TrEMBL record:
This is 3'(2'),5-bisphosphonucleoside 3'(2')-phosphohydrolase. It comes from Polymorphospora rubra. It holds the Pfam family Inositol_P. The lineage of its organism: Bacteria, Bacillati, Actinomycetota, Actinomycetes, Micromonosporales. GO terms for molecular function: 3'(2'),5'-bisphosphate nucleotidase activity; metal ion binding. Mg(2+) 1 binds at residues 64, 91, 94, 211. It catalyses: adenosine 3',5'-bisphosphate + H2O = AMP + phosphate. It comes from the Bacteria. Its cofactor is Mg(2+).
Length: 267
């Protein structure tokens, strides 16, 4: 039986889905990357859906792999999650592209619980990010420590999408004296901020709630800054699941990075 508390359950779910993904990867190999992506997405999604239905039958679920997941609900009859008090926001396989590439470890499983009664602005009551190929799970049930500050004089290391980096980031990096660190998966990038491998993660131009919910729950549990790139709070379980940009960083970097982002956001 899985653990009872929501935090520990999220940790368990993400870890088990991650083990399943490692098995799918080992069994299928990398000869057909497109088929491997589909098999991984489906296996992790079905596992999460089944276990959530079994152990949290009255909670709603928003999963990237649901047919209508990307739909924006403007009035009318929305899905149960819109009025639900508790919604699991899951990305069964974040960094699908990297999962299909041999040897890469920058892909993740995201499991977050949004709760209407949570007091934080993002209302994420629990979260877990499994990094199966890195053999670790970051989760709110084992609050990660705040990352160590790098030695003085070290350039700011800025994690950025490998495949869809925001166009303005090269100029922004020049402005603040940062180096860009391309990496796959929002979860893997935020995990790299949590463990101090990089100092910040900036994304813009498109993403959905499931791409950031679980990693943001873990990052804020560690005391890190997480917001939209204009400084507004990240909010979840909205009628439109698009959440196209974010900044996650050490708190001492939030003000200078938001200031540098301000002109780009307005542009
Ligand atoms: N412009 C965009 N529009 C929609 N989704 C985007 C996006 N840029 C990144 N993402 C999503 O954010 C996640 C991390 O992206 P990246 O690895 O490029 O940093 C990926 O999730 P999935 O792998 O779950 O699809 C990717 O699809
Ligand atoms: Mg994703």
């Amino acid at each position: 039986m899985p653990p009872e508390s929501d935090d520990a359950f999220a940790h368990w779910l993400a870890g088990r889905a991650g083990e399943l993904l490692l098995q799918v990867r080992a069994a299928r190999g990398h000869a057909d990357p497109a088929a491997l992506k589909v098999a991984g997405d489906r296996a992790a999604h079905e596992f999460l859906r089944t276990e959530l239905a079994r152990h949290r039958p009255t909670d709603a679920v928003l999963s990237e792999e649901d047919d209508d997941a990307r739909r924006s609900w403007n009035g009318g009859d929305g899905p149960a999650r819109i009025t639900a008090d508790r919604v699991w926001i899951v990305d069964p396989l974040d960094g699908t592209r990297e999962f299909s590439e041999e040897g890469r470890a920058d892909w993740a499983v995201h499991v977050a619980l949004w709760s209407r009664s949570a007091t934080s602005t993002h209302r994420l009551a629990a979260g877990a990010v499994a990094l199966p190929a890195q053999h670790r799970v970051l989760a709110t049930d084992s609050a990660p420590p705040y990352p160590p500050a790098p030695p003085d004089g070290t350039a700011v290391r800025l994690a950025v999408s490998r495949s869809r980096p925001p166009a303005f980031l090269t100029a922004l990096a020049d402005e603040v004296g940062a180096v860009l660190v391309p990496m796959g998966s929002a979860g893997a990038k935020i995990a790299a901020v949590v463990d101090g491998t990089v100092d910040a993660y900036i994304h813009a131009g498109g993403q959905y709630e499931w791409d950031s919910a679980a990693p943001v729950a873990v990052a804020t549990a560690a005391g890190l800054h997480a917001s939209r790139i204009d400084g507004a709070p990240l909010t979840y379980n909205r009628t439109d699941p698009k959440l196209p940009d974010l900044l996650v960083c050490r708190t001492d970097l939030a003000a200078p990075l938001l200031a540098a982002l301000q002109s780009r956001v307005a542009a």
